[in-house]
Structures are given as structure tokens and as C-alpha cells.
Amino acid sequence: MQFGAGGDTSAKELEAEGTKDVGWLVAQARRALDAGADIIMIESEGTTENVTSWRTDVVARIINELGLEAVMFEAADPVVFEWYVKNYGNEVNLFVDHSQIVQLEALRSGIWGTKSTWGRIQNIA
């Protein structure tokens, strides 16, 4: 969706660059999966990071068209990975910083959470 995003590109710079249609991203991801990729990593810049508002519509379309098991989303902050788990379940594939693994796994297990998630995350096994 964003071309050339990465590192710490500001929201202003990303907005100036413009976006591609999400269908383009989905088509590229399908090509990679058809060629043998196991999973598609979706960076957070332009979706949930360095934006004025999160592009949850983009996340939903990617998941709806590719399937939850085929994608992994970068979730650079606890509020972001909490949103993914709250909206897509504890099996959603997330890339987090190594220092956040315990917090993420505690959330997935239902033993940590904020007011909006405490006691609401179900461990589906």
C-alpha cells in the first residue's frame, strides 16, 4: 500500500508519497504465496504506524482476501497488538519487538490486558 515506507518515515511524508490500491498489495501477496512463500509480512508504516488514523480497512481487506494464516502484521506498540488480538483473535500472526513477547503472550493467554480486553480474550485451543 505504501511504497518506500520504512524506518521512521513521518506521517506527513507517507501522506505526500500517496498510497497504492490495496488490491495491488493483495495481488502481489498472492503472487508470492503462489510462488511458495509461507507467509506475507505486512509492515505497520502507513497502516497503524506513522499515520494520522489507523487503516483498519486495509487490515480487514488483507485478512478477508488472503486469510488470517497467510499474513503476519507488524505490531510495534502494545496498543496495536492488543487491537489485533481483540479484533482477530489470539491466533493472529504478529511481529513484535523481542521486549514485548511476554506482554503479547500474556494477552493471548488472558492473563494480562487493559480494561477493554481483560477477561475478554479467549484461548482457543
In short:
The protein has 5 helices and 3 strands; from the N terminus they run ααβαβαβα. By secondary structure, the chain is mainly alpha-helical.
Question: In words, what does this structure look like?
Answer:
- Helix 2 (22-34) packs parallel to helix 3 (56-66) and helix 4 runs parallel beside helix 5.
- With 125 residues, this protein is mostly helical.
- The N and C termini lie far apart (33 Å).
- The chain has a three-stranded parallel sheet with strand order 1-2-3.
- The protein is globular.
- The protein has helices spanning 11-17, 22-34, 56-66, 78-88, 101-109; strands at residues 40-42, 71-74, 94-95.
- It is 41% helix and 7% strand.
Mean pLDDT: 84
Number of helices: 5
Shape: globular
* Classification by helices and strands: mainly alpha
Ranges with pLDDT <50 over ≥5 residues?
A: none
**What strand order characterises the main sheet?**
1-2-3
Percent of residues in helices comes to 40-55%
SSE succession: HHEHEHEH
Could you give the count of β-strands?
3
In angstroms, what is the radius of gyration? 15 Å
Main sheet summary: 3 strands, parallel
Distance between the termini: 33 Å
Percentage of residues in DSSP E strands: 5-15%
